Predict the structure.
Amino acid sequence: MKTMQWRVRHLLCFLLMFFFLGIYFLSTSPQVSVPSRIPHISLDRIKSAFRTTEIPKILHPPTAPAVVRPTDPPYIGDKYAQEDSFPQRVCQDSIRQRVAGTIFGPKFLDRIPVLQWQKHFSPEEYHRLQKYPGSHGWGEVDYQILGAALSLLNTTANGLMFDDWESRANGSSCIRCAVVGNGGILRGSKMGREIDQHHYVFRTNAAVIRGFEEDVGSRTSIYTFSANTMRNSILTTANYEGPPQSEETRYVFIPDHDRDYLLLKAAVTHTPVEKGRERGEKASKYFGPNVTARKLKMYHPDFIRYLRNRYLRSPILKTSFRDWFRPSTGAVMLLAALHTCDQVSAYGFLTPDYQKYSNHYYDRTFQTVQFFSNHDYRMELKLWQELHQNKLIRLYMRQRTPGT
């Protein structure tokens, strides 16, 4: 009996020893996550530990320091459709050839769809682009309205910025574009003749020409607008009756809302606008009575979102104005030229000395430049300087910056 009691007593002591050793181990060990594979510890080391009362330490393999990367919120959507083909040109001094060697190389996507037309519309694409509001997607566009409008843009001309290049190239292999903003820096510039000598002339919004030809030129090849910006220009600009109308002029919508798709449909079908703010209006008052589908184009929402994400990702996106923000109409126009022309000259855009000039070249009295919360003009100003310094555009400036 004594032998049995002695064995039980020693067994209890042995168990208590393991119990207290376990408590000691837990209290002295660092708080670490459980490794996926525990390193092998030899039996000799365990025996030695018990002889010296040292608790063996489990040695974790070294791990690389964590790399912290910014995670884009879902509304950014920095993934885009790609064009399966684009016009092939042999210009040796094109922007596409030069951009790779600049700071803009990693940002530049040469297969981004600049314009949307019938081939881009499908239920799958509608589902994908519904995630993004405003001009950055189809989130606020009715499926039927969208389909009805894009079905009318059903020729390759609707997908090409320069659908008439073959007829006007005149032996040139490089498309030279003048992109004309409405900045007051153009008043008295006498740049009109130089502007008109380019293959294509881009203008936007209140592109007042009559009376200012000497400074801003007289031609309009590509007119960029949204229904909202165009209407506001007509309402707020003296002596401005609407977009330029000429045989060469193409009209490129920025699709901010349903109303842009409705206006486009009315223009192609020569019928009154079905509903919305322009309900009952005839589009011919804006584009002339003989406008055809070939002369109407529309920016792709992926392209607008790409410009915002990679060139003009403003701190405004972190504010309550996020859904309202987009690159200004002039910025969309200039960056579209950057992606479609071979050589770009920009006139009438913000420069570091912008405070010297009136808001617009056509202002009757001096007007201070106005900044609005749905655009980031200071960021755009900086971008124009960077593009100029990297020789991707030639920016007209009165006050030259060092190295230009």
